[in-house]
Target: Carboxypeptidase regulatory-like domain-containing protein
Amino acid sequence: MYALRSGVLILALAAQGGALAAELAPRTQNGIVYLSGGVGEDERQAMQAARADYPVRLTFATKGSGEFRADVSVTIVDRAGAVAAAFVSPGPLCYLKLAPGSYRVVASLRGKELTQALTVQPLAARELYFYWDPESATPDRAQ
Model:
């Protein structure tokens, strides 16, 4: 089943062209596999195709409007307080494969950090939503 879903994702990415496939390629950091994207309809569809393969799913948005946020700094901290992974999510959707255990997920956008606790259990999916206030999600404007 995993091979079939992965094959469907590869075909979907290939249909979108090499640039999209390169952007949505799974990455690994300290043994943690993650996939991040979702900017534009094509990427959202490709992320949706990969969704079932990633039991931890993060979504980044603006409180109230639900407008998606991108370029979010993500830090995964394990139970011992060690940084398990740290990266920038280029899109509003970030899917991860984490070993069972307890973690803290810190998401930062323009200096505003949001933190949520996460417990990963075998064969159980978890979804975390991070919502920033509208003023935190708006780029600074020149005066």
Strands lie at 27-29, 32-37, 56-62, 72-78, 83-89, 93-97, 101-109, 112-120, 126-132. The first strand starts at residue 27 and ends at 29.
